[in-house]
UniProtKB/TrEMBL annotation:
It comes from the Bacteria. InterPro entries: Epimerase_deHydtase, Lipid_A_modif_metabolic_enz, NAD(P)-bd_dom_sf. Gene3D superfamilies: NAD(P)-binding Rossmann-like Domain. This is NAD-dependent epimerase/dehydratase family protein. Residues 7-210 form the NAD-dependent epimerase/dehydratase domain.
């Protein structure tokens, strides 16, 4: 191992991973992209995982790779393959002398049927999807490995994100596109409440946590409850367009709760600030995204 600032990063080309990579480098870390270390190999293959670790010679592993195809990932069987691969990757990294592992978990691990105002890290885990179940088991396995091997570890549970590079079918880009073009869009109910965080802020937070020493599960979110109609108002104001959302036009899925908000007191105790940024960040994103749509379409 070459030192605490050499970090092996999986998923470095992804929506969140590339932001983690940028912030790690800005903090002085030497980032080893798993794709480079394996000549673009598939981490679902055991030999590729072994090569990534041996080539990287890193002291810290940040594991951001997973199946992420929008919509399809919730119940994709690939989640089970990534669960197995992730646990094996962690074990190999520990056996090679790694010091700290940071994995990316999800709000989908929690029991959404409790009606909780906020989900703290000690809230019950009862996932409703294959994705959430695989993430929960992977986080639990990491905790067990860390205890057995004396590893430092962090399991970062991510809630909802937005930012440049996300699929246009996701909620925020879909709203921006609809409002910019004046097209009606069916959405969930106006009172649907979510915890959104700018992906740039998320990447910064995870990078800082990776180079720190905080242990165990941690919600990495804004902690700010945002209603769907409030989000729509911010976007419409930024674009100077009317709200064209038809609230309630899309029925909630059977396991889809009205409210999902993180308790972020543990994150705040580290000095990392994520709260109170939604309006300014979302406005800037909506304007930039809306401008790009305008330029592509050639319309006003």
């Amino acid at each position: 191992m070459t030192g605490p600032n050499r970090v092996l990063l999986t998923g470095a080309g992804g929506f969140i991973g590339r932001r983690i990579a940028d912030e790690l480098r800005s903090l002085g870390a030497e980032v080893v992209d798993a794709r480079t270390a394996t000549q673009g190999g598939d981490l679902l293959v055991p030999e590729v995982r072994a090569r990534a670790i041996s080539e990287a010679r890193a002291e810290v592993l940040v594991h951001a790779a997973w199946v992420t195809a929008h919509g399809a990932f919730w119940n994709s069987p690939l989640n089970l393959e990534w669960e197995e691969a992730s646990q094996d990757l962690f074990a190999r990294f520990a056996a090679a002398g790694g010091r700290r592992i940071v994995g990316l978990g999800s709000v989908a691990e929690y029991d959404w049927t409790t009606g909780a105002e906020r989900f703290g890290e000690d809230a019950p885990l009862a996932p409703a999807t294959i994705y959430g179940s695989a993430k929960a088991r992977t986080g639990g396995a990491l905790g067990n490995l860390a205890s057995a091997e004396g590893l430092s570890h962090l399991w970062a549970r991510i809630f909802f994100t937005f930012g440049q590079g996300e699929p246009r079918s996701r909620l925020i880009p879909a709203l921006i596109n609809a409002f910019q073009s004046g097209t009606p869009i069916d959405t969930g109910p106006a009172e649907l409440t979510r915890d959104f965080l700018d992906a740039d802020v998320l990447g910064t937070a995870i990078a800082r946590l990776a180079l720190g020493d905080v242990e165990g599960p941690m919600n990495v979110a804004s902690g700010d409850p945002s209603r769907l109609d409030e989000i729509a108002d911010v976007i419409a104001a930024a674009l100077d367009r009317p709200v064209s959302a038809r609230f309630g036009g899309r029925a909630l899925a059977p396991n889809e709760p009205l409210r999902l908000v993180a308790d972020t007191r543990r994150l705040a105790s580290t000095g990392i600030e994520t709260a109170g940024l939604l309006r300014s960040r979302l406005s800037a994103y909506a304007r930039a995204f809306g401008t790009s749509l305008h330029q592509r379409s050639g319309t006003g």
